[in-house]
Structure formats: structure tokens, C-alpha cells
# Entry
Amino acid sequence: MFHPVSSLDSLALAVPPGKRLYCISDVHLGYGNREVDRDRENLLVDFLRKASADAAAIAIVGDLFDLWFDYRHAIPRQHVRTLACLADLVRQGVTVIYLMGNHDFGHFTYFHEELGIHVYKGDVDLQLPSRRMYLAHGDGKAHHDSGYLVLRAILRNRWAQTAYRMLHPNWGIALASRTSHGSRDYTGQKDYGPADGLRDFAHQRIDEGYDLVIMGHRHTVMTEAYGSGLYVNLGHWLDLQPPFACWDPSDSRMRVGLVRTWLQTDDIRLVQ
# Structure
């Protein structure tokens, strides 16, 4: 079955010896009660700070926030520690690659103008020193997901978002937050059927010549060798043991580990 590719940007990334590329997805900051969400953010900040020691780049493969919608003069009030940490990474020379997900698509100008981070609206063709990596959040790539693709086109339409920003931020952010929470519950419980469209999409990209395909959205960690490539789904951060992936140019291998274990022991399980 054919799986359409959304808009595709190309990016060449130098990863010098001793440096790494880290990948995370589906952190969903803002989901759940504030105490649980604050603990999740503390864990994320600890992860980003430790990764900054040897990171050439950190790829956020969608849904960093359970809801993000910035106005010309206002942004969501929570998670300022994450925003400050991302700004610090940029100042330290770490490249932050941020893909929109199906929850944090309401970006306007804040990340670019205030943090120096370009937010990619679609997929990214990432050229590494010895590998070619395809990054995609994964929304819209499940089989029989045409209804969502229509909805996504409407929600991300420039004029629709301009009209929405005419609402007062207190109303606009609150309304978007309720909608986002319902959507996340739906995604988490969705039956993807016997055929995994995201995996099939990854296989197609590997058949086209990509060595690594990294995705999220599915909320299930997956590592699968296919042909001469590797597909990794990054899972999510809503459990006590959130995952992450790390690519090291010293051996050109992708490793997937658990954040809490890595913070305590430096251990990253070898995948490929």
C-alpha cells in the first residue's frame, strides 16, 4: 500500500567524534495532573542537561507538548524550565531538531524568534556523516487514516490558525488543551489493526535507501531490522521508564535506552 510523504525538509548534520545524536518523542508535557506533569518535566530537564555534555544534536520527533499554541504576545505558562533548557542547548551549540506532532502543531514565531529553534512542519531527511536518517512523527501514516489527514490540513491551515489566534489566549489555550487531551486518549487507545502503517511506511523509506527511520506517535517502543536498515519507534514518556535513542558516529550504531537507567548508570542498550 502506498503511504504519502508529508512535506520533507533536508538537513545535513555533522556529528564529530565524541559527539552523539539523541532522539526523543511523545513527552506530552502538560498531560495529566500538575504533580505528575512536573515530575515528567524534571526528568526531561535532567535528560537534556546530561545529553548536552556530548550531544551534537537532539531531535524532538513530535509531541513534546500535549498542547502548544503560541500567540503574538503570549505562550502557554507552564514548562518554562523546558524552554530555558532548550535555549541553553542552542547557546551551547547543540542543534535542536524539532518536528511538529499532532498535538504541538500550534507553533507561530516563539521558538524561532526567542529560542533560535526551527520547527519542522513535516518530515526531515537527515544526512549524517555515514548514514541517511528519516525522521517523522508518524501521524497520518496509519492505514485508513484519511479522515485525520483532512482534519490535520484544516487545523494547520494558516488562515484557520490566524482566526483562532483572534480568541483571547485564556480561552484559546484552554479550548485547545481540552481537545488535545481527548485526542491523546484516543491515540493511546486506538486499534491500529493487524497491519502497522507506520512500520510499513518505514519499510518504504528503507527500500528507498534510508539507513535509519525514526518515528514516534505510536506510543509503543519498536526496533526492527529490515533489509539493510533499521526502524525505531521512540515510544512515549507517559510511563515511569521513558525511552530515548542515541546514534554514535564512532560505530554508526543506533542505541535505545531508558532515561532513568541512563541517568543513573550511563547504560544504553545496544540495538543495532
Notes: The chain has a mean pLDDT of 84. The helical segments are 34-51, 80-91, 110-115, 146-155, 158-164, 169-189, 197-207, 259-265.
